[in-house]
Amino acid sequence: MLLGPPRGARRETESGRKGRGVGRGDALPPERARPRWQRRPVRPRPCPAPLPAERRLRTAGSMDASASASAPVAPDRLFDAHRLPGGEGPRLLLSLLLYAPVGLALLLLRLFLGLHVFLVSCALPDSAPRRFIVRVMCSVLGVLVRQADPRQRSLRARVFIANHVTHFDHNVLNLLTSCNAPVLNGTSGFICWSRGFLEVGGAESRAELLESLKAYSSQGGNPPLLLFPEETTTNGRVGLLRFSSWPFSILDSVQPVALQVQRPFVAVSVADASWVTELLWTFFVPFTVYQVRWLPPIARLVEETREEFALRVQELLALELGVVSTRLTAADKAEHLKRLRHSPSAPYSPPAPSQPSGTQDRAFPSVASAEDVRWSGMAQRVKEVLPHVPLAVIRKDLARTNCVDATIANLLEGRVPFIPSEAEAEDSSAAPSVSGTHYLASAPLTPAPMKLFARSPEARHLSLQERKRLLYDYARRRFMEKHGMAPKEGSH
Question: Does Metal-binding count among this protein's keywords (predicted)?
Answer without folding.
Answer: no
